[in-house]
Amino acid sequence: MMSNKNQLNVKTSEDMTATELNIEADVVIIGSGAGGGISAYELAKAGKKVIILEAGPFVPSEKFTEMMAVSMATMYEGEGAQSNTDGDITVLQGRCVGGSTVVNAALCFRTPDYYLKKWGKEFGLTNLTPEVMLPYFEKVEKNLGITEVKPHETSSGAETIKKGLKALDIPLGLARRNIRDCAMTGFCFAGCKTDRKQSMMVTYLPWACNHGAEIYADTRVTKITAENGTAKGVNAEVIDPKTGVTKTRLSVKAPIVVLAAGPTGSPLLLQQSGLANSSGQVGKNFACHPSLSVTAIYEKKLNDFHGATHSLFDDRHTLPENGGWIQLNAVQDPVEASFMAEPGTGKPYVRYMQNYPNSTRLITLIHDKNVGEVTMENGYKEIRYQVDDEDFEAMKKGLKENARILFASGAKYLYLPTYDTQRINSVDEIDSVIDALENESARYRYTSFHPQGTCRMGADKSKTVVNPYGETHDIKNLYVVDASLLPTSIGYNPSETVYALASYIADHINEANPG
Amino acid sequence: MSDINKQRRQFLKLATAISVAVASLSPMQVIAGKITEDNKMDATEHAVFTKMLTISLPTEGSPLIPPASLPVIPTIEGALLAGMPPHIRQSLNQGIHYFNQGPLKKYGKSFNELPDEQATAFVDEWTSSNKAPHRALAMGLKKLTVLAYWAIPDTWTPLGYVGPVSEKWKLKYRGVTPEPKA
Q: What does the radius of gyration of chain A's CA atoms come to, in whole angstroms?
């Protein structure tokens, strides 16, 4: 059955009856998240027949449960359990129609000019100047309703932390989000049930479908095909998610292939296909903005259960030369709170959870070096990444600042997100506790929301995978449009960067392939 | 690669397997897999999780719901273990058995046989151990157990947390945003 719900032209495994299906199109797009969705619309609007293949399921918003564990199991890569090889960094990515845009926090930052200039100087991306990119930022901001939070779009935790920022004379950063009429449920990470978050599922994808685009969910691409150095299409399997059984083998012939499977999926697909890797850089240069949440306990109840998921930040130190970290507030449900700190086994843990209504958290997220790699080993994905020693020192500085803000906001004591118990009881203890932390595996409860960098963009084909216009150096008409492109980590949430780059690359594709 | 490194690697993989297991939990068991002879809990696993649950959530004297009154162990088994890929399930099984034998040298008993006080001390020792696999196992198994407890919505009531709100608040669906005009 074809579903027109939300005006999406989606076929799922349930709709598939044939064991083989061959389709011809002008463009096949692998992935339906930020890069895939925007590419689909811009190319379909230009008159191209577009097919979008999404490995994850189609979950209509009315079926969103507003329960994190269920959402992770149904809409996240690896059922929310994707992690680095050591298992101490959870790497969160969406895996559903709409991709990570369905389950992210909707925070948007323009790419800082600092990085656009750095990429021009160090990677030959002299085409991506602040002046060139400005209209692309403005366009996606308008289309996705990206605006600063309004005064009422906050949370009790944010209002409390705001007092700490003011007490320390720290300028208040107000979040910009792609949300219209925020209902402040606080369930951004579980999917916005009433369609206020402007994910691809309620914007660019249905708009693409208005121009004839078709979406196949439950469809895993197994190979990108090419002949004589030019992309020719893809082979894929439509898999019943309940049984794991392949229902249909799908072949799409298309002269343009757009890869938007995300920073862990895209490099693996290129590796599996044996394409675009003359540089040897496919899958390398993985970065992920590791983050740690400090939990603060207050005398009074905050009931920081609902509200704007993120509403404020402190980015005075976000550029590398200023330290390389950013602080972000966030609401959290009891399931998340239950593992964010280690107060000690037994009674201390019971007291900690009893104090959940009296708690909030402040996240420290770091700009990190591109020191990781994504590979396939023995049939399973491996993300080989450990926090670099210098990056860890930046994290420690960020955690100190984080702790000062929380104490200035009235916190009685803090828990660091460690495996053993690390409690800070006063401002005087901050330096001694945090200075003692060492960069070791299986010590810290890291979360990453921003994998990136695994198909680097640049002018030098011996050092990068993709050229300055998003096309792979090796294979003509094979484009990459997700966060794999980023030559360096940017320290800020990269979603708007991906939105803008995808728009820019789509314009290039249309110019290079008129008609 | 040395034996020590191989062992370290094996248990780091185990830690990953446990992380996978933990994050896959479903509060409503909507993603429960089918429990089979191959993936169901063995007696040791059942005993380890039961002991871990008892020592992690001693709720007497607090408003929290006693874990024994909730289907925590079935949640772990049905919503988690049954849905795991076989190779991860096997690694997890090995890790749980290794963990259970951990206290033998110091305490003379396996974890599931320890008095609660000693079991609590053992878990805290391993979470602060110098050995990464010990930290990973202790933290992972504890996290798994408490997550299974907190994933059951009944546990939220004493905290004042009401869970999903869109229907309670009668929020209207906004639907698809109109396509921008050219």
A: 22
Closest partner CB to A339 (pick from B21, B147, B162): B147
Those residues whose C-beta lies under 8 Å from the C-beta of residue B18, and which sit 6 or more positions away, are: A87, B92, B95, B136, B137, B140, B141, B143, B144
The answer to whether residue A70 neighbours chain B at the CB level (below 8 Å) is yes
Evaluate if residue A449 carries a pLDDT over 60. yes
A416 touches chain B (CB under 8 A): no
Q: Which two tokens stand for residue A34?
A: 């930020």
Quick one: which H or E segment has residue A413? strand A413-415
**pLDDT for residue A451 is more than 50:** yes
Is A194's CB within 8 Å of B159's CB? no
Q: What distance in Å separates the CA atoms of residue A82 and residue A88, rounded to the nearest whole number?
A: 10
pLDDT at B8 over 60: no
Query: Looking at the partner chain, which of A185, A354, A420 has a beta carbon nearest the beta carbon of B127?
Result: A420
How many CB atoms within 10 Å of residue A339?
18
Helices (H), chain B: 3-23, 43-56, 72-75, 86-101, 104-107, 116-127, 132-150
* Residue A64: both structure tokens together: 């969103």
Percent of chain A with pLDDT over 70: 99
B162 CB-near residues (< 8 Å, 6+ apart): A305, B156, B168
Element (H, E) at A237: strand A230-239
**H runs (alpha helix) in A168-281:** 204-210, 262-273
Inter-chain touch A86–B15, beta carbons under 8 Å: yes
Please name which of A504, A414, A509 lies closest in space to residue A127, comparing C-alpha atoms.
A504
Q: Which pair of structure tokens corresponds to residue A52?
A: 């979008």
Q: How far apart are CA A398 and CA A414, in angstroms?
A: 15
Read off the pLDDT of residues A196-229 as tens digits, 9 standing for 90 and up. Answer: 999 999 999 999 999 999 999 999 999 999 999 9
Q: Cβ separation of A203 and B171 shorter than 8 Å?
A: no
Q: In what helix (H) or strand (E) does residue A35 lie, and over which residues does it extend?
A: helix A34-45
- Is the pLDDT at A185 greater than 70? The verdict is yes
- pLDDT tens digits, residue range A335-391? 999 999 999 999 999 999 999 999 999 999 999 999 999 999 888 899 999 999 999
Query: Whose CA is closest to A438, among A392, A491, A374, A383?
Result: A392
CB contact under 8 A, B30 and A73: yes
Phi/psi of residue A397, nearest 5 degrees:
-65, -40
Region A294-315 average pLDDT: 97
Q: Are A33 and A262 in contact (CB under 8 A)?
A: yes
Instruction: List, as ranges, residues 110-169 from A with C-beta within 8 Å of B.
Output: 142-143, 145
Which pTM was predicted?
Answer: 0.94
